[in-house]
Design goal:
Blueprint: E1 7-12, H1 16-27, E2 31-37, H2 41-50, E3 58-60, H3 63-67, E4 74-77, H4 84-93, E5 97-100, H5 108-121, E6 125-127, H6 135-144, E7 153-163, H7 166-171, H8 177-180, H9 183-199, E8 207-210, E9 215-216, E10 222-230, E11 236-242, E12 244-255, E13 258-262, E14 273-280, E15 283-284, E16 291-292, E17 296-301, H10 306-324, H11 331-351, E18 356-358
InterPro entries: Gfo/Idh/MocA-like_OxRdtase_N (IPR000683), GFO_IDH_MocA-like_dom (IPR055170), NAD(P)-bd_dom_sf (IPR036291)
GO molecular function, one term: nucleotide binding
Pfam family, one: GFO_IDH_MocA_C3
Length: about 350
């Protein structure tokens, strides 16, 4: 039986992240880059040249033009967050499947409009959170759901920080209120929140409270903040995100029987393999001078980089819809929505002088 033809993906916008995802589309066995759009033809042309796109790539000098392209099945959208609601809805209305950069929207009300358009037009939407597609992540989930080795989850701590230089803090779109107004919370915090939700089986917390001491720039965009999350049964979590602290990306999940630690969960130290440590029933020796059952390290190899695994999964879902009449997979928009809800709650807490925000019924 002949394999299905690759899913033809258009890249809508020439953001820096689009370089990495373009490479991923090249590497994914079931996807191909069909077209690129920028608001200027020149920019699109130079992007195609500098990123070694195939010669067959169509070049569009406007976003409208790529939406009309019948040879594009799906769009990767790395536009600034404030533009997502308009262009994702327009893409869905043209029947284009959407791989949408995170954060998915400025708030959950905007994202709900995007999802409604996707549902009405039968298109798949998935956000661009790459690390969840790394083969390591499946192993993390396996350990977390092992009632013998891990037990019941008690708490999760997750953080993502990097120190932006002067130019970044002044000029990057992630510090501009009209472009990516969620700042470090939408960019780095998104990952820490997703990790926390993943460890909690995507069960939303009851309450979210930002820690006092958030740092905002002159335009009111968050450069650094933290928050605590609580669940009804006593589970807790803390998240921290910052553009002002050294590069760190950690998950620590502690259960009744075991502990999971990941030191590079967003971008692994190496592209071809990723590690994590687990410990189960750790204790002290008799003199309490050393550990019995110290943590052990596990390494997961991957043939494809995690962003190519993401594109492969997205293209697989699109192929099922296109070739077999399948329905879009609702899991992906559901976890995007939950992540966005918690982002919104942290921001609301910061805006309301660190008040506790309830998520019940949202």
């Amino acid at each position: 039986m002949a394999t299905d033809t690759p899913i033809r993906i258009g890249v809508m916008g020439c953001a820096e992240i689009a370089r990495k995802v373009s490479r991923a589309i090249h590497l994914a066995p079931n996807a191909t880059i069909a077209a690129v759009a920028s608001r200027s033809l020149e920019k699109a042309k130079s992007f195609v040249t500098s990123n070694g796109y195939p010669e067959s790539t169509k070049i569009h000098g406007s976003y409208e033009s790529i939406l009309e392209d019948p040879e594009v099945d799906a769009l990767y959208v790395p536009l600034p967050t404030s533009l997502h609601v308009e262009w994702a809805i327009r893409a869905a209305e043209k029947g284009k499947h959407i791989l949408l950069e995170k954060p998915v929207a400025m708030n959950v009300a905007e994202f709900d409009k995007i999802v409604a358009a996707c549902e009405a037009n039968g298109v798949q939407i998935m956000d661009g959170t790459m690390w969840v597609h790394n083969p390591r992540t499946a192993k993390l989930k396996e350990f977390l759901s092992d009632s013998d080795r891990f037990g019941q989850l008690k708490t999760v701590q997750s953080c993502f920080s990097f120190a932006g230089d002067e130019d970044f803090l002044k000029n990057d779109i992630r510090v501009k209120p009209g472009l990516d107004g969620l700042g470090a919370l939408g960019d780095a915090g998104w990952y820490a929140i997703r990790a926390t939700l993943l460890a909690n089986n995507f069960e939303l917390p009851n309450t979210v409270t930002a820690f006092p001491g958030a740092v905002l720039n002159e335009a009111g965009v968050i450069l650094s903040c933290g928050a605590s999350l609580t669940w009804e049964d006593g589970r807790t979590a803390t998240i921290y995100c910052s553009f002002l602290a050294n590069l760190t990306m950690e998950i620590t999940a502690i259960g009744t029987n075991g502990t999971l630690r990941v030191h590079d969960f967003i971008i692994p130290f190496q592209e071809t393999q990723a590690s994590f440590t687990t410990s189960t029933e750790a204790w002290f020796n008799e003199l309490v001078t050393a550990w019995v059952n110290p943590p052990s390290e596990h390494t997961v190899k991957t043939e494809l980089p995690q962003e190519a695994c993401m594109v492969r999964e997205f293209a697989r879902l699109v192929g099922e819809i296109k070739n077999k009449g399948a329905k879009p997979d609702g899991f992906w928009p559901s976890i995007s929505r939950k992540t966005q809800l918690v982002v919104d709650a942290v921001k609301e807490s910061v805006d309301k002088n660190y008040e506790q925000i309830s998520l019940s019924g949202r």
